[in-house]
Amino acid sequence: MNGVEPTLELDLRSPVPPFEQIRAGISAFVDAGVLAPGDRLPSVRALAADLGVAPNTVVRAYRELESAGVVRTARGKGTVVADRPRGALTADDDGTARTLEAAVHSALAAGWDRERVQRVVEAALVSPPAPVDRKDTP
Fold it and tell me: Do the Cβ atoms of 60 and 68 come closer than 8 Å?
């Protein structure tokens, strides 16, 4: 890792399931550059023991991260941060992708499930906002 040992903390009183807290925490570490491509994540058993959760909780978080392209897992080699996570922002991003990602992460942290987030995004795509009349803007 980048010389920094990131630490995940769970709030077991939160309505957000522990697997989602783990997924969001690791995603945030990747987004912030705390975890870089090729960095190895702790084993399922080690992270489960550190966080005081069942190994299947960590397995679910890792699977979701893998399906999102954030990490990759190789049997016998462990789980590492993907070389270029799918959906990674580029230097020429205008901030829209970052804003959308932040909104999705906020919804998930508030307890929304993936299906609800997807329904809201799909609805927004079906009925986009009215175009801005540039004559009225200063």
Answer: no
10-residue averages of pLDDT along the chain (138 residues) = 68 89 90 88 95 96 91 89 65 62 73 84 76 54
Q: In a 3-state reduction of DSSP, which class is residue 30?
A: helix
Nearest one of 56, 46, 45, 44 to 18, comparing CA atoms: 56
Q: What does the buried/exposed string (b/e) look like for 80-93 if buried means 16 or more CB atoms within 10 Å of the residue's CB?
A: bbbeebeeeeeeee
Helix-then-strand count for the chain, H and E: 5, 2
Tokens encoding 123: 């609805």
Using CA atoms, how far residue 33 sits from 41, 57, 89, in Å, is 14, 24, 12
